[in-house]
Write a structure and sequence with these properties.
By secondary structure, the protein is mostly helical. It contains 15 helices and 2 strands. It has a two-stranded antiparallel sheet. The two termini are 34 Å apart.
């Protein structure tokens, strides 16, 4: 990507927004740690884990930890793309629907006789295609992200239901199940896929110019544009990444269920947004970190698992999670002020 680096005028306009990001120099002091975007999410994760240890004797069992990580993996993968979008000040409400369409189409092609690898590639291409469409309408047509992604959410879900007739697609090749329940050197395949994606995202956001542009756009889009950065191109790539991570998540979910589910991913966009916000990323953009998102996804997963283990009513769980999300947004807003 041959985009110019932001000039000094851009730096001055965005220094407040980006000074607390994970890419900033880490100060080995208590005050420096508290200023980090991952401090409060990490404290929250530790507190929830401590409470759950006392609430349930089986919380720390190997089987339960594996179960939590496997459940977290899908939401965490989707949240990678969502982090990039939110860092630019945008939002994506269609990730769950795009995931359903990618998964059902790939499953349908496999059952129809297409080579399984080729079918997975087509599923990934669907994710990228929707990402490109969203990016075009947001970045080049100047439409509000919430409207664009709300529309594509309906389109993708509708196409998935039309393609399947509303029924699951079964009969996938047995080896596909490896992506949902297999292991590599004792590590679950979904967890390994999640870690690889996070490692790539960390390099992209924290060690490459593209990451600086993403933070700068969220901090001060106009100053970033005036500094010579191709803002529209960066936004397009961000939505492409959101589509790509949705497609990868669809592979994991389809492999776990061994079927293509047209109703899969309902509400996943809200869980992804929750993971990003609970991980310390500002909902208005310009501040946050990919490591914080991983911590936020783990926090949400541990919370879901713990509440289920102690027998909390699912309706009450929604109230608790909603309250925690509001608290996370309040903390993020207060620290930004």
């Amino acid at each position: 990507m041959n985009m110019p680096k932001p000039s000094s005028s851009s730096s001055s306009g965005t220094s407040t927004a980006s000074s607390d990001t994970a890419g900033a120099p880490v100060r080995l002091s208590w005050a420096g740690l508290k200023r980090s975007t991952v401090f409060y999410p990490l404290v929250g994760l530790l507190m929830v884990c401590i409470v759950m240890v006392f609430a349930s004797n089986s919380f720390l069992s190997a089987a339960n930890i594996e179960n939590v990580l496997r459940q977290v993996s899908i939401n965490a993968i989707i949240a990678v793309g969502m982090t990039c979008v939110i860092l630019t000040g945008g939002i994506d409400l269609s990730v769950g629907s795009v995931m359903a369409l990618s998964g059902t189409l790939a499953a349908g092609l496999m059952v129809a006789g297409m080579n399984a690898v080729a079918a997975l590639v087509v599923g990934i291409a669907i994710g990228l295609g929707f990402g490109a469409a969203k990016g075009f309408f947001v970045a080049y047509a100047g439409m509000p992200p919430i409207i664009v992604t709300l529309a594509t959410m309906g389109i993708a879900r509708g196409l998935a239901l039309i393609y399947t007739g509303g029924y699951p697609i079964d009969g996938l090749p047995e080896w596909i199940g490896f992506f949902g329940s297999g292991k590599v050197l004792g590590i679950q395949a979904p967890v390994l896929i999640m870690l690889v994606i996070y490692a790539i995202a960390w390099v992209l956001l924290e060690r490459m110019p593209f990451g600086r542009y993403v933070y700068a756009i969220g901090g001060n889009e106009q100053a970033t544009r005036l500094s010579g950065v191709r803002v529209a191109r960066v936004k397009l790539i961000v939505y492409l990444l959101a589509g790509l991570t949705s497609a990868f998540a669809s592979i994991v979910l389809t492999a776990r269920l061994m079927s293509g589910q047209p109703n899969a991913g309902v509400g996943f966009e809200l869980d992804a947004i929750a993971a990003v916000v609970m991980g310390g990323t500002s909902i208005s953009g310009g501040r946050g970190s990919i490591i914080g998102t991983l911590i936020g996804a783990l926090l949400l997963g541990v919370l879901n698992n713990g509440l289920n283990m102690v027998g909390v009513n699912p309706y009450v769980q929604n109230v608790i999670k909603g309250g925690i999300i509001l608290l996370a947004i309040y903390i993020s807003r207060d620290r930004r002020k």
